[in-house]
Design brief:
Elements lengths: L2 E6 L6 H15 L4 E6 L9 H8 L15 H6 L2 E4 L4 H4 L6 E3 L10 H24 L1
Parallel strand pairs: 1-2, 1-3, 3-4
Helix pairs in contact: 1-5
């Protein structure tokens, strides 16, 4: 089983979905033994429609993703936890276990800016992990 990267955002309807989708896309291209998932602390009913459309234009389908609440088991086993709005306190874990990406614009106000910022973070993460797995 591949190691898991966990992306968190409060509603699991936009930022975390975008990050996990990009990560899985690039990890597969790079043949990294990693997969990503996303979850939230206050999940929405559905993924934001503009996120589905935006990623669909890039050939990435997230239309079947169901926003969900993060659970303690997945927090315990995640190789890496990256948050875009969830805090260690509300997750009940040590702050050192969470990497915060706090420079992402709100998807509802700047969807393209958010997408580009998340993609840049994910590309840097993939490059870092590729070096680690190649050595």
């Amino acid at each position: 089983m591949a190691d898991r990267i966990l992306f968190l955002c409060p509603h699991n309807a936009a930022k975390g979905v975008i990050a996990a989708a990009y990560f899985n896309h690039f990890a597969q291209q790079s043949e990294l033994p990693l997969t990503a998932d996303s979850a939230g602390t206050e999940p929405s009913e559905v993924v934001a429609p503009n996120v589905v459309t935006m990623l669909n234009h890039e050939g990435i389908d997230v239309s079947q993703h169901q926003p969900r609440r993060v659970n303690t088991d997945e927090l315990a086993v995640a190789k890496r936890i990256i948050s875009m709005g969830c805090t260690a306190e509300e997750l009940g874990i040590e702050a050192e276990r969470i990497e915060q990406w706090s420079d992402i614009p709100m998807v509802s106000k700047d969807p393209n800016g958010a997408r580009e910022a998340i993609r840049a973070h994910v590309e840097r993460l993939i490059a870092e992990l590729r070096k680690r797995y190649e050595s």
